[in-house]
Amino acid sequence: MGIEPTTSGTTNQRSNRLSYGHHKLRAQSNKYSPLIAMGKKVLLKVTTKNTPYHILFLSSWFPNKAFPTLGNFVKRHAQSVSTIHQVSVLYIYPIDGLADCEWEVEQVENYTQYILYYPKKRLNILHSSRAFKVALQKFEAENERKVDMIHLNVLYPASRQALFLARKWRIPFIATEHWTGFHADTHSTIRPWQKALMRAATKAAAFVCPVSEHLAKAMQDHGLKGTFKVVPNVVDTELFTPLDSKDMKQFTFLHVSSLLDQHKNVSGLLRAFRTLAQKHPNVRLKVVGDGDIRPHQKLAIELGIRKEQIEFRGEQPLVIIAELMREANGFVLFSNYENLPCVIGEAFASGTPVISTDVGGISEHMPNFGGKLISKGNESELTQAMEEMLQTTYSENELRSYAETNFSVKAIAKAYNELYTEALKTTAE
Question: Is the pTM of this model over 0.70?
Answer without folding.
Answer: yes
